[in-house]
Amino acid sequence: MDIQIAQISNMSQSGSSLLRSIQNNSTPILDLLVRESIQNSLDAAKPDSRSVRVDFEIGEFRPSRLNSFLTGSQKLLNKRFPGSSAQYIAIRDSQTEGLTGKLSSKYLQEHDDYGNLLKLVYEIGQAQDKRGAGGSWGLGKTVYFRVGIGLVVYYSRIQLGPGNYQSRLAVTLVEDENKESRSIIPYTPGKKRRGIAWWGKATTDGETIPLTDDREIETILEVFGIDPYEGTETGTTVIIPYINDRKLLNNNRNEYVDSSDQSVNPFWYDSLEEYLVIAIQRWYAARITNRMYDGVTLSPAVTNYVAKFHEEITSRNMAPAFKVIQDLYNTAYAKMTKQSFMPILQKHGQTVMTEMVSLRNEFVRNLDKTSSGVVAFATVSTTYLQMVPPENLYSPCLYYGLPDNDDDKHEPILAYCRKPGMIVEYTDTGKWVQGIQPMGADSYLIAVFVLNSNQRFKADYGLPEAENTLEDYIRQTENADHMHWEDISYHGHSLKIVQKTQKHVASKIAKTCKSNVSTPTGATERLLSKELGKFLLPPEGFGTAPTRKTQPKKPAGSGSLGSSPKKGTQCTVDEHIRYTPEGMSLHATMDSKKVISKLCRFELAVQTEAGELKPEAWESRTGLRFPFEISEISVDITRQINRVWKTLCTSSVVEDGFSSHNVNIDYLKTADDICYGFIIDATGLDNLRLVFSIDLEIPDKSLAPSISFRETSERSE
Questions:
Q1: Which of 259, 317, 245, 252 is nearest to 285 (CA)?
Q2: What local confidence, expressed as pLDDT, does residue 556 receive?
Q3: Which of 27, 165, 191, 523 has the fewest CB atoms within 10 Å, i.e. the most exposed one?
Q4: What is the C-alpha end-to-end distance of the chain, expressed in Å?
Q5: What stretch of H or E contains 696?
Q6: What is the pTM (predicted TM-score) of this model?
Q7: For residue 382, which of 408, 360, 363 has the smallest C-alpha distance?
Q8: Helix/strand/coil for 106
C-alpha cells in the first residue's frame, strides 16, 4: 500500500491534538470504544434495517505480514514488534450502509455530503447530521487511535447501485509527533512532523484513496483471519492491531473495596472479552434486541477464536442489573407514547412507578402538554438482582461502573438517555438524585429517564425549524464523549432545560417514594378474565396449563443467537408484548445450534381458570368461532455460515405455504379458516435462528390467549 504523510497546513490538527480531542481521560478506553463504535454502526443502519449486527472480535496476527503492506513504515514497525504474534481487536457491523461517499474530498461538489468514508477515515470534526444520530462533534472516532498504537485499518463494502457493490480498505495512523523516538511515520527531511499518515492507493497528486480491488483487500484481511463481506452484504469492519489487553483492562480501572477494606475485583477486569460483554450491556441495555425500541435494534456479540470464547448478547441473557435498565426504559417509553405495558419487574413483584416530567412555558402545548420526558423507577430487591446465594452476583453499582460502598444504605441510581438509546451516564450523586433517600440493605432504587425527543419549543424562542426539537438541543449539550448533559446558550437563548429537568426528576422520585405510592402507572390493561372458566367449564379437568408455556432457564452466559442449548431447539416468546387496539403484537424466536431434527409448533388457545381450550375444543363446547386470529406473521432468517452470522431474509411476510432457504412454514387453521398457529419445518439445518413478528386480533378483550411454542414430532396433534 502507498503512504501519504500529512503535512502541516493552515488550521490543521496534529496527531497529539487529535489524541486529546475526545476530552475524556477519566472513562476507561474500552467503554469509550464500545460507545463510539456501536453508535457509528447504528447511525449507519440501512433504511430498511430492523436491527444492526455488531461483532467485537479479538485475535492474533503475525506482525511481519501486516507490516509488509505498510510502505515506508515496515522497518520501523518490524523493529518495534519483532515477535511472531500480536493481538488485534476488530469491530465488524452488518445491515449497515458501510463507508459510503466519495473516495477523496477532491471529488466533492459544492452541495455534496462528505459521506461516511471521508468523515471516518480522512476528516476530523465532520459531525453526523442524521436526525436522532449519536454524534454531534465528529471527534468521538479519535478513540480508535487510543486503543492500540494509533494504527487503524478500515474495511468496508457498500452498494453503489442495484447489484453493484464496491469494497474499500484504507489504513490510518495517528501518533504523538513530539515523541520522535517512538514514531512509526517516516521523517520527511526539512518538514515538521504532524503525526498523521494514511495508506491506500496513490493518486497523481501525491494523495491516497482507499484500495478497491477485492483481491488486494482479501490479501490484507487474511492477515487477521477476517472474512470479506459477500453476496448482498454491506457493512464496515474497523481493525485495531497491536493492542495490549492488560493495558486496556487497567486503563482508568476503578478499585473497589468492601466493608472490611478487602479488594473487590469483578471478573470482567481479568478478561478483555468479559469486559466488552459487560460494557456493551452497560451502555446499550436499552437497545439490545429490544422489540419495544422505536427504531433499529442492536444485536451484539463478542468473540475470541483463539480463546474459544463466543457470547451473543440478547435481552434475555443480559445480567439482571441491565435487564432492569431495559425494562425501565420500556416502561418510560410506553408511558410517553401512551401504550399499555406491563413491566417485567412488576410481574416479579417489584414496585415500579412512572412520572411525567413537565416544564412550564418551554414547549408547544400539545398532546404531551409540557413534558420533557418520563422517568421510570423501581425498588428492586437484592434477590431479583441475584445478589444472594446461589448466584451471588455483584451489586448493580459495579455493573454500572459506580462506587459500591457495600454498607446498609444504598444510594439511588439514575441513568438517562435520548433518542439513540445509549445510556449517557449512570449517577448516584448530584442534581439528578438530590434529596432522594437511600434504600436499605435489601433493595436498590433504580431509575431511567427517557427524553421526550420530539417535543418542540414554543414559537417565542424563534429557533430554526431544523433545530427546534428537544432532541436537537440536548444533542448540542453533550461533549464529544456524550457522557453528560449541561445547559448551553442555544441560538442566543438560555433555556435551562437540563437544570429544570434534573430538579423535577429528583423531586418527583423523592416525593413519590416518601409518600409510599406503590401503585404503578402505565401498566398494561388487564386481559385475563376470571369469569370465563366459571361460565363455560366445570371446575376442573380441562386443559394442560393455565399460562403460556415457557422454556427452562438458560445457563448463565448463554445467548440466543449462537448459543449452545443442551438439547434440541430453543423456542421462546419475548416477554415484551405490545398491545394494540386490535389485540397484541409479539415476537417469538426459534434458535438452534445443532442439526434440527423436529418440527416446531406455535399455536394459540383460550386461557381459562380451569386450563386452556384449544380451537377444536372451544368450538365443540361453545358452538362459537375461535375468538383469536393471527392476522400477520413476518420472519427474519439468520444463519451462521463460515463462522459469520448472515441474514438470509428480513421481514418477509409469511403466507400459507411459505418456503425460503430450506425453511418451510405452514399455517394452522380452524374449520372456519381462522389462523391460530403455524408449523415450522427446518429439519436438517443447523446454526439457524428465526425471529417472528406476530400480530393477533382479539375482538373480545375479556378473553385471554394462551400461547404455546415448542418442538413437536408430529405435524398434527
A1: 317
A2: 34
A3: 191
A4: 64
A5: strand 688-697
A6: 0.75
A7: 408
A8: helix
